[in-house]
Amino acid sequence: GESVGLHLPTLSVQEGDNSIINCAYSNSASDYFIWYKQESGKGPQFIIDIRSNMDKRQGQRVTVLLNKTVKHLSLQIAATQPGDSAVYFCAEKPPIPLMEYGNKLVFGAGTILRVKS
Amino acid sequence: EAQVTQNPRYLITVTGKKLTVTCSQNMNHEYMSWYRQDPGLGLRQIYYSMNVEVTDKGDVPEGYKVSRKEKRNFPLILESPSPNQTSLYFCASSLGVKGAGELFFGEGSRLTVL
Fold first, then answer.
1. Partner residue opposite A103 with nearest CB, options B96, B105, B110
2. How far is A93 from chain B, CA to nearest CA, in Å?
């Protein structure tokens, strides 16, 4: 598989346990956040997003929590499965300067999740 | 099936030999972007395009060119590749140009420059 995980933090969890992956973002004015999952040899895939006017959002087996006070984002995966093994990236969208456009996302370096059976 | 398609998936080339990595999306997205991914550094944006004939530099544009002659295609051009451009490249697209929106990624192109 593709080696993107050198020197990344690694979280190892037992199958069936809950996982919590953390991310510190950089810009206090960022208004949109996304979590991506990247499996070996594949491109990042969208998991869940949250806007800055919310502090929690739930999906299927996943929950994202946003703490704007400390610029912290977390992804909670319930009942972790072997198929959840991947690198997880958070991304933030800083505010767009006046007269500029774009869908610029700033990505974190990622966290490796390993699920033990 | 909605997708972003990149070619080639793997390429080994030599310093100075021009190459192009193609990217095509079938979702009628206005926004397209190229990223490179290096170990421990996450995804860094190279160039992006908000629509046909509208392109702009990202965070690491040096040594790259792009074009957007058609809405669906956004090729990445390395006029004179160098070893520091050895990387994993991703093309992405999204519907939105003014606000936030989910980025759809291709499968990646692994480039090695000798």
1. B96
2. 7
- Give B98's contacts in chain A (Cβ within 8 Å): 96, 101
Which helix H or strand E contains A88, and what residues bound it? strand A86-93
pLDDT, tens only, A32-74: 999 999 999 899 999 999 999 999 999 999 999 999 999 999 9
Question: Distance from B93 to chain A by nearest Cα, in Å?
Answer: 9
Report pLDDT for A87. 95
Q: Rounded to an integer, what distance in angstroms lies between the CA atom of residue B66 and that of residue B78?
A: 9
- Which chain A residue's Cα is nearest to B6? A43
* Partner residue opposite A109 with nearest CB, options B40, B99, B101: B40
The C-alpha atoms of residue B31 and residue A58 are separated, in whole angstroms, by: 27
Core vs surface per residue A70-94: b (16+ CB within 10 A) or e: eeebebbbeebeeebbbbbbbbbbb
Q: What percentage of chain A reaches a pLDDT higher than 90?
A: 71
Mean pLDDT of chain B: 92
Q: Which pLDDT band, with edges at 50, 70 and 90, does A104 fall under?
A: confident
Q: Is the pLDDT at A6 greater than 90, yes or no?
A: no
Cβ atoms < 10 Å from Cβ of A31: 15
